[in-house]
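Intended use. Records like the one below are meant for learning the mapping from a protein sequence to its folded structure. Do not use them to infer anything beyond what is encoded.
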Amino acid sequence: MTLLQVLSVSKSFDTTHVLRDITFHVDEGETVCLLGPSGCGKTTLLRIIAGLETVDSGQVLLDGQPLGEVPVHQRGFGLMFQDYALFPHKDVEANVAFGLRMQGLPSVQIHAAVSETLDLVGLEDYGRRRVYDLSGGEQQRVALARSLAPRPRLLMLDEPLGSLDRALREELMSELRAILRRVGVTAIYVTHDQQEAFAVADRVAIMDRGCIVQQGTPQAVYRHPASTWVAQFLGLANLLPGRAEAIASGAIQETSALMVETALGRFALKAKGGVSAGQDVTVLIHPEAARLQTDCPDEDSIPFEGIVQECSFRGGHYRLGVHHRSGQDLTFDLITEAVRLPSPGEPIALALRPTAISLLVESNS
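Structure written out for the chain above:
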């Protein structure tokens, strides 16, 4: 069931258009991530939903009812920000209890809710600790507990892991998703980091210059970006210009196979939506597409040969940069048990998996 709807919301500050006709929804118990670069409008959109900003046009609905005239404190929403905004003069228990005391709940009920929530975030013995004695990760958990303790209808998180180092962020991403699922809270999560978004969200809405340019599950967005801009924003750099060649005459129907001519050769791909013969397209080769030819017995694989430019060990895989004779440079994340890989300057023979190659057709709008 849909909890929140954002319908055709636009917002400007002076002459700067910050949001343009934004429409999306959030279902009960779902975590939706607003993902985009700095300045794309995602925090402004979050503030509009919270009631901290007003819209120029459009509306926000909760359970089908407009929120425009509902004050911030009556919306029943929880907010968690990057800087945590904890009270340094209060201990952990007092910080977590703040929202509950604002609701005027009895002390016994507050104490039980605080204890339950601290246990949920892995801080069951931290109630009397001083905030400034905690690590960054522990402070993040306290801020999350404070946001969850009043059991909000909607939890909004604005770059909650942004101030943490990469190792701690990796650790907390999975924990955060597990906690949100365990509580069953509906959440909107704002970040500029695609790995963070994919780890936490059920659905992702990618924003660029005040517009939502693609929505979908993390898997669908990664596998089939809607444009070259989305692919590049997601860190997918192996983009090749190509031209569609119809197998049959006329337009190619949805999910039909077609040949695409590129600088690397001809690829047999599946087209989603109508693609006409002679149409310019973009071929996306995902970084995990490549295997050594000796490791890839798949008869459908596409042979690819080039000169190694970079070969570095990254733990679970090798980062491999390869120069093709066409002048095209590609980067792969290669998983192999080979004892030795070619060094920079040496030739390499790879096989590309067709299932890790996508066709992008740019919109004319």
